[in-house]
Amino acid sequence: MKTVLILGATGNLGGLAASVLNERYPEVGLRLTSSRESGCDSLRELYPNAEVLGADWYDPSSLVEAMRGVDSVFIVVPDFTTDESIVTPNIISAVKTVGGISQVVRLIAIPPGLTAAQLSPEFLATRCGANLSVIAKPLLDASGLPMTYINVPCWIMFNLPWFLAPEIKARRRLAMPRLSDSSRLWISEADVAEVAAKILAEDPSKHVGEEYVLTGTERIDFVQITKLLGEVIGEEVVFAADDHPLRDAMGDKFDALMTYFRHETRDYGGVPVTNTVARLLGRPQVTLRQYLTTNRDLFI
Ligand SMILES: NC(=O)c1ccc[n+]([C@@H]2O[C@H](COP(=O)([O-])OP(=O)(O)OC[C@H]3O[C@@H](n4cnc5c(N)ncnc54)[C@H](OP(=O)(O)O)[C@@H]3O)[C@@H](O)[C@H]2O)c1
């Protein structure tokens, strides 16, 4: 039986990928990790058939233990906190120490062609999105490991219920700082997770060496999302250039996020639309209207 290790299986994308693998690919064995005891407990409850271990990517020996005997590894690191200059070398070293791993799948977010040299120290210090990936990818490329990249240089739809829903529910306002507005590509978290699960479940030889760039199907700005939300909810929603709700939602991460937006609204603007999700999954990808309709209850 093939065994897939998900490092960070309590996370949004790692958790969804675990769930898809568990439900649709019963032939795949799952090993799931969290760096927290409480995270391991909830993984054991959710996935009684999986092996669950504690692993912290700042603790090299825990990574080696987590990787022993697995065939494929999936890595998704969190924004704001990850020090890629430590985490990625530790992961590379653990894969090499263990040996025999046939595929390392890493989620990244890099507008095609963007490199660390093009990003100011101020942007890199946000440790968000491309500012993580432009550090990690060159290290992974140089490592000689059997890599597959899932590159998502756009916004994931879960951002909407995460930091916009409370204000939409309470005051029917899509409230965001003016400088964060941009015409963006949007992709559903379910599509990203399905792609990851498929890549992890299939024969690695089909995917090693590939970089799959996943995007939304069309560019949509906040005014258009506001209109869409109004249609889905059946009540008027207005756009408000107001940073207070985001400040409340993000707490001490707010300033870093505002700095990140200055680079993101600039550097993600030229990302071309791809059909990679439809090509890999053999079905059209989820549109923002479909996502909002399915998740309408989160906004009313
Ligand atoms: N939001 C967007 O629109 C968007 C768009 C494109 C790309 N992305 C990228 O998506 C990624 C975030 O994905 P996500 O939301 O799924 O992340 P997440 O929910 O924050 O999950 C991160 C995972 O990392 C684990 N983790 C944290 N510290 C750890 C440590 N020291 N050792 C081992 N594991 C640790 C966490 O598990 P424990 O805490 O249980 O250990 C958690 O499972 C970022 O890289 C971001 O750039 C986001």
TrEMBL record:
Pfam families tied to this protein: NmrA (PF05368)
Species annotation: Paraburkholderia aspalathi
Superkingdom, taxonomy of origin: Bacteria
Ranges that cross the membrane: none
Domain NmrA-like: 2-239
Protein name: Uncharacterized conserved protein YbjT, contains NAD(P)-binding and DUF2867 domains
